[in-house]
Design goal:
Helix content: 25-40%
Distance between the termini: 25 Å
Largest sheet: 6 strands, parallel
Strand order of the largest sheet: 6-5-4-7-8-9
Strand content: 15-25%
Number of helices: 20
Number of strands: 15
Oligomer: single chain
């Protein structure tokens, strides 16, 4: 993708649009820079809609099903299971492709998703009335519950009943871990849920959470594939994990793996939770540790190896948004699809990048401390030094407007009792940081949004911020610092200017982590 950022205007967000209309030949439109950011977010989400990514990855040709460079014999021998936020649309698209070859299926999807999609007119994501796939809803608020556990049991039962010559199509997307809870006895669902909540509250990464989930699950960590033997398993995966590792997405139910109880115990020790583990969890981990030097869970039979294909990812979404940004006259710069780490450090990264871009066009160039500060911060937030240096070079050389694109999944440590999510908290932190920089950063706009349309237990996917955010809040009697301490970013944005900064696309039917957009206006 072509690169080329800018120096910042001091005349506010609209200056970006006026400049583009004049110098880039883009038709003038009565839109703010924030609206442009929203449009680019919408383009990113559209690029990873289940029907489009699945139909381009799964085709039927004669008596063969073509998937990710391989083909499989198909003759009324296909079964389907799925679990995740995007799986309903994936299942509908898959059934349209395979038609009568599908014998039956079961999918585990979020509570209320069918009604929500109907309300939003997303009929293409719903199964037909005569579908052979049974839909089971559960995991309210993205947490495992008894309904999701029942769905997992039904999926396990379907897979266990397959034989040689059968083909199991497993549809996997973000949210799949919560929708496929199958705790290893004697661990109860509540015990596992309590442990997962404790880890999340301590700021554990998705990788760390999945390590513990897998060690305590019957189906995760390749368990579903083992249940389906000797059938052929084909996994179609919409990735919501940085780097798209198939063994971590939904905790890898279709990916053969060995037990990792010692890794799980190390995670629990890291967050000070090992001493308080219930006896059931201690029992399972100790039993698995005793088996770790044996042949492992997978055995040595000759069952066909699962075939897993990642059909959609954060990178795909960012690339689509980048193409649209270029059409609008901005220079798209893809920083990284793997931004992670503490949300405060991530916010600092974007504020420093904006400061560098502004200073690069001023006499004397950027202050000497900015580049070392960014390079020191990079490893903390999952951004490689090479990606940072490439981005800084473009920011320093360009005179035009820039759209900096990134994605990933920062973490938030829960200390307060407010309502919010990582995207809204990130937007709030970036807005405050932009306004508090010593260099003038007027005209910069930042958007952070979850591609699933949900950000924590709120109705929003994220929010839009700019340098005027703090002043706007203070004038309305709002204290953003208190909102951050209470993890109450949703309430803050809801009260601020009647919620106009909130990003509320509704349920999108997909999930490839978060999208971050930093719009930087051109040199005046």
């Amino acid at each position: 993708m072509a690169l080329s950022p800018l120096c910042l205007s001091r005349s506010g967000p609209l200056s970006l649009l006026r400049s583009l209309s004049r110098s880039q030949g883009v038709p003038a439109r009565a839109m703010s820079a924030a609206q442009w950011a929203r449009e680019l977010f919408g383009v990113a989400v559209k690029a990873v809609q289940p029907d489009s990514v699945l139909s381009s990855s799964l085709t039927l040709q004669g008596g063969r099903l073509l998937v990710g460079g391989q083909s499989f014999a198909i003759d009324h021998n296909l079964y389907l299971v799925g679990f995740g936020k995007a799986v309903l649309g994936m299942a509908a698209a898959a059934e349209r492709v395979v038609g009568g070859h599908l014998v039956r299926g079961v999918v585990s999807v979020p509570h209320g998703i069918q009604d929500a999609l109907r309300r939003e007119g997303r009929g293409e994501m719903l199964l037909s009335a005569d579908s052979r796939v049974r839909v089971m809803e559960g995991a309210m608020h993205n947490l495992p519950d008894s309904a999701a556990q029942q769905a997992a049991q039904d999926i396990q039962k379907l897979a266990s009943g397959l034989g040689e010559g059968d083909l199991l199509l497993a549809l996997v997307s973000g949210g799949g871990s919560a929708l496929l809870p199958a705790p290893t006895p004697p661990v109860s669902l509540q015990e596992k849920l309590t442990l997962t909540r404790a880890l999340a509250a301590q700021g554990a990464t998705i990788q760390e959470l999945n390590t513990v989930r897998t060690a305590l699950s019957e189906l995760k960590g390749g368990g579903l594939a083992r249940c389906a033997r000797p059938a052929q398993v084909v996994g179609l995966i919409l990735s919501d994990v940085i780097g798209d590792p198939v063994d971590l997405i939904a905790s890898g139910p279709t990916v053969p793996s060995l037990p990792r109880p010692r890794d799980a115990r190390a995670v629990l020790q890291r967050y000070g939770l090992e001493a308080s583990l219930p006896p059931s969890v201690q029992d399972v981990l100790s039993r698995l540790e005793g088996q770790e030097d044996s042949e492992g869970r997978d055995g040595t039979d000759r069952a066909p190896q699962p075939h897993n294909v990642v059909i959609g990812s954060n990178t795909l979404a960012l690339q689509a948004a980048g193409r649209r940004a270029q059409e609008l006259g901005l220079c798209p710069v893809l920083l990284s699809p793997g931004v992670c780490g503490d949300v405060g450090a991530v916010a600092r990264l974007y504020a420093l990048l904006a400061a560098f871009a502004c200073a690069a066009r001023s006499p004397g160039g950027p202050p000497a401390h900015l580049t070392p500060a960014l390079l020191e911060l990079g490893p903390q937030v999952g951004v490689e030094a090479w990606d940072l240096m490439r981005t800084l070079q473009v920011l320093e050389q360009s005179r035009g407007a820039v759209c900096l694109l990134a994605g990933g999944e920062p973490t938030v440590q829960l200390r307060g009792g407010g309502r919010g999510g990582r995207n809204q908290e990130l937007a709030l932190r970036v807005g405050l940081a932009l306004g508090r920089e010593e260099l003038p950063l007027q005209g910069v706009v930042f958007l952070s949004g979850g591609t699933d349309g949900q950000d924590g237990p709120t109705e929003a996917a994220g929010a839009v911020a700019d340098t005027a955010l703090e002043q706007e809040a203070r004038e309305q009697g709002l204290d953003p610092d208190t909102s951050l301490r209470e993890n109450d970013s949703f309430s803050f944005f809801q009260r601020l200017s009647a919620g106009r900064r909130l990003l509320c696309p509704g349920l999108t039917g997909t999930n490839v982590m978060d999208v971050h957009l930093l719009l930087l206006p051109p040199q005046p």
